[in-house]
Amino acid sequence: MRLRYISALVMRFRSAVIIQLMVLLIMQGFSVECAIGKIIDRVVASVDDTAITKSELDLKYNTLSKINKNISYAETLQGMINRILLLKDAQKYRMEGSEDEIIDYYIDLKIRALVRIEDKDVKKYYEKHRSEFKGHGYKSVQDEIIKYLTELEVNRRLKKIIDKLRSESNINIMLDSPE
Q1: Which of 32, 55, 74, 117 is spaced 20 to 30 Å from 44 by Cα?
Q2: Domain extent for 24
């Protein structure tokens, strides 16, 4: 009688071990499958600790190429890098809002507020480009010239800031060619 009892105990033990082994094998199978699974997305660039994925680049490129047919993947990627740099620098000022609002406010605060266009520069531009104004007097186009010269200066200063931010950042581009 004792023999049967041991054998029933052994059978339960064996069943438990077999079940545990099966669970372990199933779990191992899932981890192996995950390890050899498909790559969902790949990083094409990084700016410090921020990654830009291929799908993000594709989305931005597709959007921009509808507006500008001549834009390249490389130009799109550079623009995305610049945007990340500006957003990171804007964090110092604790700005809130959408990314576009933060960048606009950053440019207004850090650049546009400091740009002053002198009247002599406006007059000089008007005289140099008088034929483009088709008989419009200086006073009627003065505000437009000021806006134009302001934007030129804002863009020049923005480029300097971006160049400085780039030199202070760790930027890695891993995009070989557009796919």
Answers
A1: 32
A2: 1-37
